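Pasting as-is:
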Amino acid sequence: MIDWDDCLDYKVKKVRENPEQAHALVTLAYRRLDSLKKRRKDEYPQLLIESYYEVIKEYITALLVYHGFKSYSHECLIAFLQAYYPDIFDESQLQFLDNLRKLRTDIQYRGRDVADDYLLRNQKTLETILTILGTIIKNEFG
């Protein structure tokens, strides 16, 4: 995984804090998550994985914007969590997110297929990460 300080050198820039944009991104993430929950669980796993990734990405991007950053790298979203919330996310969760990022890239740009049981095997981890992100957002955004 990339280090947050490296991200600040070339993949993230400091911008004005933007709570309105952060709230808009959270609203979009909530809508995506609601839509995802209504979908069939036997749908193509790679499409569901992409959707989960988008929700997580929007949550983290909202936190970045709230703290006054703009990232040009999905890797740096995970580095941000590691730097800003070191006592909240453990190493296995951060590694899972980095693997999910890579998997989503392979799906989107290479058409990678995913095992039918991937979501079943990783559902608990996904739900835990989504819950943690939701809690952070509620605590920080008020």
